[in-house]
Amino acid sequence: QMTEEKEAPIVLGTTVEEPLDLIRLSLDERVYVKMRNDREIRGRLHAFDQHLNMVLAQAEETVTRVEMDEESFEQVYRQTKRSIPMVFVRGDCVILVSPPMRGS
Amino acid sequence: LQFPSPPNYARDMLFFSFFKTLVGKEVVVELKNDLSICGTLHSVDQYLNMKLLDISVSDQERFPHMLSVKNCFIRGSVVRYVHLPAEHVDTQLLQDATRKEIAANKK
Lengths: 104, 107
Fold this sequence. Notes:
The complex is a heterodimer.
Chain A: E1 10-11, E2 14-15, H1 19-24, E3 30-35, E4 39-48, E5 54-68, E6 75-89, E7 94-98
Antiparallel strand pairs in A: 1-2, 3-4, 3-7, 4-5, 5-6
Chain B: H1 14-20, E1 26-31, E2 36-44, E3 50-57, E4 72-74, E5 79-83, H2 91-104
Function (chain A): Binds specifically to the 3'-terminal U-tract of U6 snRNA.
Domain Sm (chain A): 18-103
GO biological process, one term (chain A): mRNA splicing, via spliceosome
């Protein structure tokens, strides 16, 4: 055999075999979700499925837009934030899910 | 020819079952085209298509298309978010159901 199969690592008492198992570790924890159309959401993860449909609580959505200053012609990045107490997110918008970054 | 045997625990049903518990409650469905529709959830199916009753549109100036519409059917694939009434969501139940769903869908 060219390669040997490693045994699945055990993290916090459960085996982590697939990427979805990594997300399962974040249940009831805050997560960071990067989405399409320059959107991001941070919130407490309460549910997800293999499509990455999710339910998040105490969520904050950040939308990043690029505006062009008419006089100076420089590009300005503007962020709009929104708080949503409880939200279902459809999985086909999701790019990645991770623990929140330091400082957030 | 062999037909696949039915699963002990139905796959893909987590959010279908979840939305069924919200039938009769008021939700806001935000579509991918930025239109937000507030209404009472009448029904949902396995694709998370939804039917809302007595709808009102968030930005009526920008989206006058629905001024005369009372009820609507929304294709699941056009949904971005559904804003949920937090008081009607059992988060512990959701977490337990998620763990079962992930285990049931393991390859």
